[in-house]
Design goal:
- The protein has one domain.
- β4 and β5 form a beta hairpin.
- It is 4% helix and 40% strand.
- A seven-stranded antiparallel β-sheet has the order 1-3-7-6-5-4-2.
- It is mainly beta and 120 residues long.
Length: 120
């Protein structure tokens, strides 16, 4: 079954403390915290993906998010906050966020269930 994607506009926000996460090869940052682009990203689109109970997921988080990570991008883990799970931030060379993802471990592996991007 194909996941359902709902789009919801959100106000822009900046990232907080992030911990890098391994991706091929391990990401490096230029010292600045990942942040949404300052121009052209006033509005965000977000989607929650819903899966059937026995949806087949990936063996690892890295495998689950791989299709959202373009060549040249790195992945940074943003720790959980009150009322918000940890996020996986896909960032470009300037440490600007391309996509923010949330994952969960279902009965059959890891699945992406939240995707946020600039809407502009």
């Amino acid at each position: 079954m194909v996941p359902l994607l709902l789009l919801v506009p959100l106000a822009g926000c900046a990232g907080e403390d992030q911990t890098p996460v391994a991706k091929d090869p391990a990401p490096t940052t230029n010292g600045a915290s990942p942040h949404w682009p300052e121009e052209g990203c006033d509005t965000h689109s977000a989607g929650n993906l819903d899966y059937v109970a026995d949806a087949q997921g990936a063996a690892t988080v890295e495998d689950a998010i791989a299709s959202y990570v373009p060549d040249g991008a790195t992945v940074v883990r943003k720790p959980a906050e009150p009322h918000r799970r940890a996020q996986w931030l896909v960032v470009n060379e300037a440490n600007e966020i391309i996509t923010a993802l949330e994952t969960f471990q279902g009965g059959n592996g890891w699945l992406v269930d939240y995707v946020e991007k600039c809407a502009d």
